[in-house]
Amino acid sequence: MRRGLALVTVVLCAVAGCASVPSGSQVIGGRITNHQQPIDDPYVRVIPVGPGRDWDPGKIITAFQAASGSFDGPNGDHKVAREYLACGGCWQPGISTVVYDRMEQTSVQIGGAHASVTVEVDQLGRIGSDGQYIADSHRFKATYQLRQDAQKQWRISWLPQELLLSRNDVNRAFRTLDLYFFSPDPQVKALVPNPVFIPMVNRTWLSQQLVKQLLGGPTTWLRGAGVRTDFPGGTQLRRLDISGGVATVDLSRQARSGDLRNMSIQLMWTLRQLREVDQLKLEIEGKPVQVPGVGGTVQSASVWSGYNPDGQGDAPRGWVRTADGRLARLDSSVPQVLLPKLRVSQPAISYDARQVAAVSKSGDTVTVTDMTTGATRVVLHAKLAGGRFCKPSWDSRGNVWAVESNSHGSRLWEITSGTTKIAVDGWTLAPYPVRALRISRDGTRAAAIVQMGQVSQVQLGRVDRAPTGGLQAEGFIAINSDLSAALDLTWRDADHLAVIGATDSNPSPLLYDVPVGGGTIQPMVGPGGDMKAVAAYPGAPLLVAQHVSSPQPLDNVCWLSDKYGEWKCYDRTSAPAYPG
Amino acid sequence: MRIPLKASTRRGLSVIRRLARAALGATQARWRRSIRVRVVTTTLVVSAIVVAVLGVFLMQQITNALLEAKERAALLQLDDGVGIAQGRLATGPSDPETLNDVVTTLARRSGTAGLYEVILIDDRDPGINGFSSNAIKPDSVPARLRLQVERAPASNPYRTYGRLSYDDGTSTAGLIVGAKVNAYQIYYLFPLTQERQSLVVVQRTLFGVGAALMLLLAAIASLVTRQVVIPVRLAAQSAERLAAGRLEERMKVRGEDDLARLATSFNDMAANLQEKIVQLEELSKVQRQFVSDVSHELRTPLTTIRIAADVLYEAREDFDPLTSRSAELLQSQLERFEGLLADLLEISRYDAGAATLDAESIDVRELVLRAVGDTEDLAERKGSKIVQQLPGEATMAEVDRRRVERILRNLLVNAVEHGEGKDIVVSVAADRDAVAIAVRDHGCGLRPGEAHMVFDRFWRADPARARTTGGTGLGLSISKEDARLHGGWLQAWGEPDQGCQFRLSLPRVAGAELRGSPLPLVPPEVELRRAPYAELKLEADA
Predict the structure, then answer these.
(1) B167 and A202: CB-CB below 8 Å?
(2) Nearest residue on chain A to B139, judged by CA atoms?
(3) Closest-CA distance of chain A to residue B98, Å
(4) Do B132 and A45 touch (CB under 8 A)?
(5) Where does A319-577 sit in CATH, by number?
(6) Which residue in chain B has the smallest CA separation from A44?
(7) Spatial CA neighbour of B346 closest among B448, B254, B477, B225
């Protein structure tokens, strides 16, 4: 009897133990899901609907505009929006996309079974069929023709071929991604990013489109810069499969003649922008290929980290100008003056940190100083009447670029190997004064602040060789329509600028992060004073020169501590610089 | 219509059928013979049923619990989202941008694992029906849920299960919850992928555990049966040995359980049996000894009486007829008495196991001729003729001359006595291993069942018939014992009014085992006569 009771107790305890969850355990690390799902970074789409019954022409156009903001259908070909059309094939919206800010219907004319609706928008820019964005702010007028069909329903019979999308539609429906190409100079090991706008049809489509665009080569604009791609002409994407962090790219047979290594570098750098991709597996005609220098067929992203467009190695020290005009390095809490005799204004440090280019105090000469010897040479005098140089810029080959401008125009100079000056012929910004010019690290692109009338605009241009053999800087395009009064700019990394400037809606200068691809600019928190200049380097804190008026008037350079996200300042300094 | 098969195919089929039948037969035999097989099979079947029922029940319970938890979590998430949306959308009708932001915010709260998708329905703007997150298709929200949410008061959540379909054509089962916020409807769509994976794991575990449990139960059943069956089998073996005459056989008694009791009682039984049998054996030995002693003791006085009787018999002519007749009677009965005594002695020698075989190689025909010669006088007196069917060549066999002669004489005398004056046939045949001698008469024969009794001591075909004929009643018994001593057979056949036949079969080599007889037990002419009757009977039946 007693034994039976004990048995029952034991069984009951065991059953109770089974049904409980642990109330204490060891600390266990690691994610529950073994890999980031492609679902992360959610995106939102509109749900388009077809035309309603007995809508008038104005409503039809409004609804059509709204519905065309959705890239629905298998290839993002606006399946629902086409229901508003009287003709299926009369609309090929791939040609270009007009990005606008505000839309209004200015006139609706109805005559019997035909109607026409005119729409006017404030255009901000256009996205080309290759995904290149060019800011171009003006008023755009579009006229739609409608006619009634057999059921007395209004349908669009003629319409502009452009796709009209509001800024919000673009933000929602497009993603800005970089295609990576090799710099035209074989000496430069860095890749050149080529930002493009790709509609977010769905995740698979986006990644496939990304690779297809990469295979298709750079955008028309960047092609002019002579960037190299190693995909042989006619190479097609046969299959792209992303699973478990590995992107399997299957290329057509044309890829056999290409350099496997370079193709892998381009593919890897392009695909690793997608969060779900960590590794790459290259296949040609369905057969995995072994890329020289890589163990196994699966390449990890770190193999090609040497081709980082932002360069590699530790971030360098920043430099500032002290109140008495000397150059000091930001080693510790107090800036260290290295060359006591050197007096500089607007210094620019070379990438190897051995030379410093500076503008004289009057602004009409450019000097280059060797930091090891302290020898200073005047290499350039202003040629224009009343010409003033703005801050010079170094490229990674060790050349200095300096632009001089007066109130009517500008000239660009290149100083090779620290001594020889060359006037750049193909300088398309010659009719305009230029407030700032910075050459990108890869040496293919130049960002400039161009004074166009009342507006000082941020523009991006190409640096390349003219057919005659001389250097040229041309193809300048506006990358943003919002910034109307830019003061200074610098490259944050290969595809982002930091710009101090004001917009129409906010006239006091702020610090902005500006993607060179034309995406939305983001204001950044500044140090709080009246900002004058900015310097940046990938992986190094942002340096901002400002003027504060209280408690006493003072110039200082502040840096954003990434540890606490607060600004720290070096008093009585100005003209911040990083190499470049 | 039957399709004619090739011979080889037919043969193959028949082989398969035969194999299948054999396997079935073997299984059935095992099933019938082994308690263990039956118990284990039954346990397997019963436990399989129990495990299946239990598994289905358990699976249902776990599924319900999982889905309930999911529903509760989903409604909490929706509540959360509705709160956020209400805060943002409180100020009257909102532009698409605000809605877009709301959906983005809600979708971001889903986390990197993609816990759910969000659909916001807004059917006031032309061209747009709302916003959806990621690749979810708007038609994943079932119409029944939309109808319910549209009709319901604000913030009242509803839920249903449905299929979530995605842009890339895939679809998965999901839980869809929805509520109305101002003029908008917000739906959260939860894919049930995780839950399904969990259920698959549970299901697999249940299958594994169930199978293991079944096998375990079967093993336990097998073990338990083994513990019971082995002692039973031992008991059966002991009983068999006991039955075979090994009276000293006993079972081992282990422990105090039921099986031990069985062993104890078995041993008691065996002990009792042994005691009784030994008693009986001793008793029969004493009796045999007594008979032997009596026979011996009687011989001496009988010899004296015999001498006296011989004197009287030879002088009988001098006596008066009555006394002379008495002397003759005395003489004849004395002869009979002597014969009886000799037979008794002989049989008691057999009983005591003292009889020995004195084998020599002899032509059996010679023995037959001699026996027939001895009996011919008697046969003539009875009016019978002895017909001999002997083989042409010598039929040699290792036999004891005296004993075989005695057998033949006994058989012939028996045949003459019961032959009713008809012919007596003596036939001899031989093959490689054996010789056989058959003696056939055509007398009144034997009734069914008497064929075995003829060899019993002092048995008579007709009890009413007095001992008028010469035999002592022990002759056939002694003959049977003689045949057995040779390792041979002595068998009788008889049918009423058909006569009898006795057949003696002997191995050619003394001590060899006899496998068959060269002569049939039933005379061939009787066998032949039976056949037409059988035919007739069959026809009558038809």
Answers:
(1) yes
(2) A47
(3) 11
(4) yes
(5) 2.120.10.30
(6) B133
(7) B477
| List of domains in chain B | 89-197 (3.30.450), 259-351 (1.10.287.130), 360-462+473-541 (3.30.565.10)
What was the ipTM of the complex prediction? 0.78
Q: Are B437 and B426 contacting, i.e. CB atoms less than 8 angstroms apart?
A: yes
* Binding-site residues on chain B for chain A (CB distance < 8 A): 96-97, 100, 103-104, 107-108, 110, 112-114, 119, 121, 123, 125-135, 138, 167-168
Average pLDDT value for residue range B93-122: 82
Residues in chain A closer than 8 A to B97 (CB atoms): 168
Query: Token pair for residue B527?
Result: 């066998």
Contact between residue A70 and residue B167 where contact means Cβ atoms under 8 Å apart: no
Domain A57-172, CATH number (from 1.10.1060, 3.10.450, 2.60.40, 3.40.50): 3.10.450
Model pLDDT for residues A116-175, shown as the tens digit of each residue: 999 999 999 999 988 999 888 889 999 999 999 888 899 999 898 889 999 888 888 888
A242, A218 Cβ separation under 8 angstroms: no
Subunit contact B128:A44, Cβ cutoff 8 A? no
Chain B residues whose CB is inside 8 A of the A39 CB are 112-114, 134
Cross-chain Cβ contact B138/A47 below 8 Å? yes
How far is it, in rounded angstroms, from Cα A435 to Cα A424?
Answer: 17
Partners of residue A240 in chain B, C-beta under 8 Å: none
Is residue B494 a contact partner of residue B446, using CB atoms and an 8 Å limit? yes
Cβ atoms of B462 and B521 within 8 Å: the answer is: no
DSSP A278: S
If DSSP states are collapsed to H, E and C, what string results for A380-434? Answer: EECCCCCCEECCCEECCCCCEEEEEECCCCEEEEEEECCCEEEECCEECCCCCCE
B316: DSSP letter? G
Which residues in chain A (13-52) have CB-CB distances under 8 A to chain B?
32-33, 36-37, 39-49, 52
Q: Is residue A240 within 8 Å of residue A249, measured between CB atoms?
A: yes
Q: How high is the mean pLDDT in each 10-residue block of chain A (580 residues)?
A: 60 57 70 42 85 89 90 84 85 86 87 91 91 89 90 90 89 89 83 90 88 92 87 92 90 91 92 88 91 84 85 83 87 80 86 88 88 85 87 87 90 83 85 92 89 89 79 86 89 90 87 88 85 89 88 86 79 88
